């Protein structure tokens, strides 16, 4: 488990960039944290780290947004509005989760039952006592015998 503290959006973006630079094809990252905590900021950093130039925002009206231009495909899921887990089957989520790109899932706690056995969990939390721009970011390996 790794704990990183950031004190500005730029620092969170840079952490994402490092994650994107180090990412391996087929990895799955989940991203959990309250609204406005910085999930999209971190995701934009990851996209930059994958050498994706086009703008990355939360895929509000689609469950998954696919970016093919970087050094590997980037599958950005936001499952916040999912009504039923069957919607994940309909979009063929397994092709992404078990494919050759980097998968990033915002609000992954809502689809816990279909997460792969092994993934990286990223939790972002505020602590107002440490300031408005403070974020505690915890990265943990789930499964995979580690
Ligand atoms: P989410 O996707 O989790 O709903 P966003 O990434 O869209 O959240 O928004 C996070 C907001 O918090 C942005 O307005 C950003 O500027 C602000 N912010 C302040 N401090 C930080 C920080 N340390 N890391 C990330 N975002 C921060
Ligand atoms: Mg967001």
User: Quick one: how many beta strands?
Assistant: 7
What's the CATH first level? Alpha Beta
Q: Report the uncertain regions.
A: none
Taken in chain order, the helices and strands follow as EHEHEEHHEEE
CATH fold annotation? Rossmann fold
Mean pLDDT: 94
The figure for the number of domains is 1
Q: What class do helices, strands and sheet pairing give?
A: alpha/beta
Radius of gyration from the CA trace?
14 Å
Q: Which hetero compounds are present in the coordinates?
A: adenosine-5'-diphosphate, magnesium ion
Strand coverage percent: 25-35%
Order of strands across the main sheet: 1-7-6-2-5-4-3
Instruction: Quickly count the helices.
Output: 4
Which architecture does the CATH hierarchy give at level 2? 3-Layer(aba) Sandwich
State the helicity in percent bands.
10-25%
- Biggest β-sheet strands, sense, barrel: 7 strands, mixed
What is the approximate shape?
A: globular
- Measured between the Cα atoms of the first and last residue, the distance is 10 Å
**Name given to the CATH homologous superfamily:** P-loop containing nucleotide triphosphate hydrolases
Question: What labels describe this entry?
Answer:
4 helices; binds magnesium ion; alpha/beta; Rossmann fold; 7 strands; binds adenosine-5'-diphosphate
Protein described:
It contains four helices and seven strands; from the N terminus they run E-H-E-H-E-E-H-H-E-E-E. With 146 residues, the chain is an alpha/beta fold. The chain has one domain: Rossmann fold. The protein has a seven-stranded mixed β-sheet. Helix 1 packs across helix 2 (39-49). The chain is globular, with a radius of gyration of 14 Å. The chain starts with a strand and ends with a strand. The model has no long low-confidence stretch (mean pLDDT 94). It binds adenosine-5'-diphosphate (ADP) and magnesium ion. Adenosine-5'-diphosphate binds at residues 6-9, 11-12, 33, 35-41, 58, 133, 135.
């Amino acid at each position: 488990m790794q704990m990183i503290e950031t004190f500005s959006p730029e620092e969170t973006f840079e952490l994402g960039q490092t994650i994107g630079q180090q990412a391996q094809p087929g990895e799955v990252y989940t991203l959990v944290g309250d609204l406005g905590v910085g999930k999209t900021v971190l995701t934009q950093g990851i996209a930059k780290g994958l050498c994706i130039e086009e703008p990355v925002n939360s895929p509000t009206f689609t469950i998954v947004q696919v970016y093919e231009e970087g050094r590997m495909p980037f599958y950005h899921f936001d499952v916040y509005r999912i009504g039923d887990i069957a919607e994940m089957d309909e979009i063929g989520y397994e092709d992404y989760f078990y494919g050759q790109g980097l998968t990033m899932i915002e609000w992954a706690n809502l689809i816990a039952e279909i997460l792969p056995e092994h993934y990286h969990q990223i939790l972002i939390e505020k602590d107002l006592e440490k300031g408005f721009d403070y974020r505690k970011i915890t990265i943990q390996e789930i499964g995979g015998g580690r």
